[in-house]
Design a protein that fits this description.
The complex is a heterodimer of chains A (about 500) and B (about 140). Chain A is mainly α. Chain A has 20 helices and two strands. A two-stranded antiparallel sheet of chain A has the order 1-2. Chain B has about 140 residues and is mainly alpha-helical. Chain B has five helices and no strands. In chain B, helix 1 runs antiparallel to helix 2 and helix 3 crosses helix 4. The radius of gyration of chain B is 23 Å and the shape is flat. The mean pLDDT of chain B is about 90. Classes of the chains: A mainly alpha (about 500), B mainly alpha (about 140).
Chain lengths: ~500, ~140
């Protein structure tokens, strides 16, 4: 397979290693997160002029690497970096309190590896099938698919569906800013020349996520919690590890399937894998008190979900989450339009990425087992160094987009808006999805309508389109129905951060 | 009035404003049957509906940060804006050192280590971006003259 030829090029090996290393750090540290790290590095990869497949290897490496890093702070500090690690905290931190942090970390690393590796098989197996099928998609089907992506993300977003819809609306509005590509009239540019080209998604993303986080962390003036000293080495007996084998496989499969669905992502994958294991274990489970399977299942699942989420991104060109939306923005910026033809037209990109993910996952396992102590030391960096440092990186990245101070002002503005949105629990991910997908959605709608000569019926003309509309409606109705049917179950998990 | 009523009213007002603005997007020659107004109108509907629901079914208020925290956040925002204005004049190194120091102080860092760390970081970023990646950062007009 040619993919490994691409993956083993020295530059790509280096970038895979750099990606997963950066990912581990940002997944672990508060205040950065994969979405910020990816957004910050996008202008850098553009400027450095590296080939698209190499840029993607780096950026995707950050994405899955962050899932590993996430488990470190979750297990040691009980501070999940993102919502997808919340369930890991239950048993993972219980193990730490029982003096078994080493085995917990080792299990998390191996489970992530197993889940990650398994789901790359899934990616390689199913992406070509989906691509084959999606070739039949016309503009009407794409429009319906994007509506489905929005409704799924809104309904799975934590909190109120209506707030998520308002967030989506905000993102779609940002997408309309600038010259309308069809008629070339300016929309919502406030008379600024800088806005004629539209809102740059890097500026918006960094403002909404990174700058707002910098502001929000000012609320919490404690110097940051110090890490529980890691006692003992990160080892685990082969017997204990083997006992979690099937748990990891099941978690990986669940995570992969959930990951493919738009909107769901790592959080739902890890919850589902955890509750499945709880049921499988039955009476001999010690879930909630430090059961090792309570670490293995969600960690395998949330890593697998990352690879699942790449399938709709690469084969349909339609992301289902904030992070994959940022990746789509990066791809478009690199001149790559993902879609059903990507596998044929850019085989190096797809197979090279897949092969590099095997390499990256192996790197992560090698990095995490012996070097976890080194990563943990990074948790002790005081906040007054870490956060201003992140802010400086954000400034450079935003400035690099267009070499303009105006973007820094916009970034600050979005930082204030993002802070207010977090405060009043409006989810941020739909904004990024709306901004990146908005132009594609509008283009497909207009194309479909132009082809039909203005007949709106064209949107509901094919079985595929009708199915997608039904799915979109069902995903909106699902949370309302579930809330009626099932009484809310309280979990002993700490307050999650927003899924990125 | 509860917070959600204020938010709801604001969202609806923004939605209406956007819709009014969208009515001016007139094209002399329609290239497609949908035109440039459709998506803005959809956005306006989403915001107005979101605002109306927040108004009709308000949630409980969330706790706002103390005046002291607000002051520090405001200072951070002002620092960012001053940075944007100062960057072309003072250049990357000096303005970044200053803004990072200010931010460190807002995070209750000690003065000397904060400014030392800020200067090191700014210098490092300059080397990385300008020398290694040849990505231009402003030198500062003040020093060129």
């Amino acid at each position: 397979m040619d993919g490994f030829g691409v993956a083993f090029e020295p530059l790509n090996i280096f970038l895979a290693l750099a990606g997963v290393g950066i990912g581990t750090f940002v997944g672990m540290l508060p205040g950065i997160g994969p979405i910020n790290a990816i957004a910050i590095l996008i202008p850098v990869t553009f400027a450095a002029g590296i080939p698209p497949e190499s840029a993607l290897i780096l950026l995707v490496g950050i994405y899955y690497g962050s899932q590993y890093g996430n488990s470190i702070s979750t297990i040691l500090l009980n501070v999940p970096g993102t919502a997808s690690a919340v369930v890991t905290a239950i048993d993972g931190h219980a193990m730490t309190k029982a003096g078994r942090a080493g085995p917990a970390l080792a299990t998390a690393a191996v489970a992530s590896f197993v889940g990650g590796t398994f789901s790359i098989f899934g990616l390689v197996l199913f992406a070509p099938v989906l691509a084959e099928w999606a070739i039949r998609f016309g503009p009407a089907e794409y429009f319906a698919l994007m509506v489905f992506a929005f409704s799924a993300l809104s309904s799975f977003a934590s909190g109120s569906l209506v707030r998520a819809l308002a967030s989506t609306g905000f993102g779609l509005w940002l997408a309309t800013v600038g010259l309308d590509p069809n008629s070339a009239i300016p929309r919502y540019t406030f008379g600024r020349i800088e806005l004629l080209d539209g809102m740059d998604f890097v500026v918006v993303t960094i403002g909404l996520f990174a700058v707002s986080e910098v502001l929000q962390l000012l609320e919490d003036t404690s110097a940051g919690r110090s890490a529980t000293a890691l006692t003992g080495r990160v080892v685990i007996s082969a017997k204990e590890l083997a006992s979690t084998g099937w748990t990891m496989v099941r978690g990986g499969i669940i995570g992969f399937i959930v990951g493919v669905l738009p909107g769901a992502g790592g959080t739902i994958a890890s919850f589902l894998a955890y509750s499945t294991e709880e049921r499988v274990a039955g009476a001999d489970g010690r879930f909630g008190q430090g059961d090792i399977r309570g670490v293995a299942a969600p960690e395998a699942a949330n890593n697998a979900s990352v690879n699942g989420a790449l399938i709709p991104l690469l084969t349909l060109g339609v992301p289902g989450s904030g992070t994959t939306a940022v990746l789509l923005g990066a791809l478009l910026g690199l001149g790559i339009t993902p879609g059903p033809l990507l596998l044929e037209e850019q085989p190096d990109l797809f197979w090279g990425l897949a092969a590099s993910m095997y390499v990256g996952n192996a790197f992560l396992l090698l990095l995490n087992l012996p070097l976890v102590g080194f990563f943990v030391r990074a948790l002790t960096v005081p906040r007054w160094i870490l956060i201003p440092g992140v802010a400086a990186l954000a400034f450079v990245a935003v400035y690099a987009v267009a070499g303009s101070s105006f973007d820094l002002v916009l970034m600050t503005l979005f930082g204030v808006v993002g802070y207010a949105m977090r405060k009043f629990s409006f989810p941020l991910a739909p904004v990024v999805l709306g901004l990146v997908l908005g132009p594609l959605m509008e283009k497909n709608l207009r194309r479909a309508m132009a082809l039909s000569g203005g007949d709106w019926g064209v949107l509901f003309d094919s079985p595929i389109a009708i199915t997608l509309w039904v799915l979109a409606l069902a995903s909106l109705a699902a949370p309302l129905l579930l809330a009626r049917l099932a009484p809310r179950r309280d979990t002993a998990a700490p307050e999650p951060r927003e899924e990125k | 009035m509860s917070q959600d009523r204020v938010i709801g009213g604001l969202l609806a007002a923004v939605g209406v404003t956007l819709a009014l603005e969208a009515t001016t997007f007139d094209v002399a020659f329609m290239t497609d049957p949908v035109g440039p107004k459709a998506l803005p109108f959809l956005v306006a509907v989403m915001l107005v509906v979101g605002g109306a629901v927040a108004w009709i079914r308000p949630r409980g208020d969330v706790g706002l940060p103390s005046a002291n925290v607000f002051l520090r956040m405001g200072s951070a925002v002002v620092a960012f804006l001053v940075y944007a204005a100062a960057l072309p004049w003072l250049g990357f190194f000096l303005s970044t050192t200053l803004v990072v120091t200010a931010l460190s102080l807002l995070y209750r860092g000690p003065l000397l280590p904060s400014s030392a760390a800020a200067a090191l970081l700014s210098g490092g970023l300059w080397l990385l971006f300008v020398r290694l990646l040849s990505l231009p950062l402003p030198v500062g007009e003040l020093w060129i003259r």
